Amino acid sequence: MIAAGATVGALQAALPLAPLENRILLCHVLGLTRVGLITNAQRALNSDEAVQLAALVARRQAGEPIAYLVGQREFFGLPFLVNPAVLIPRPDTELIVELSLERLAPRARLLDMGTGSGAIAVAVAHTRPDAVVTALDLSDEALAVARANAAANGARVRFLRSDWFSALDGEGFDLIAANPPYIAAGDVHLAQGDLRFEPSGALTDFADGLAALRTIIDGAPAHLETGGWLLLEHGYDQAAAVRALLAGAGYGEVQSWRDLGGIERVSGGRRG
Question: Where is substrate bound in this sequence (predicted)?
């Protein structure tokens, strides 16, 4: 029970969550920064704040992700709005942004497939305002979130509602990046942790985990300029399979790159 009159300092020690999560929820409810929590340690919660905090703590104890509770997650140094219509951006995905930025020539055209919150497209467009960035998704709800994130971060991105390549009408790009659904149907992880609350269609292809990756690999050459790169995020154990698919489809310079945890997280190849 969180009572009105409890102080910020006491609550930081008494709340039943991990210390970082306690701080995040307190900052959210009270509109304080982390420094503000220290300087306002003796500030007492009013009744409305106590009720709001108690509700958020209960939802977190039930497993709901912190990012959905506060409606935001940082990615590539930028704030991103998130809600249950989109995946929560994760640090591992910053790798595909870095690889894309390394390969983008001035004023190059980048396509982000299955953009979700817009994390990849917005991060690239914010970092490289000269780039011509297009992002697509099949979900209208996800596109609404992505557009809001582009506007909030001053990123110029064209958004399209599209079932993979269907709305592109023969357009060509210098680089295609994607973080598609790659968890196999029935994988136990889908019933664990944050994944229980995230949109299933953005997590699993409802098949073997490689179906969306195959679709992108097979369809990308028709939209990639000669010498253009295709970069794909995938599961921790899928790198070899994705490399084989890329090589079999005729891509050159096929390789994989490791994330911060040392896991082969992104694989790609170049159109000859």
Answer: 179-182
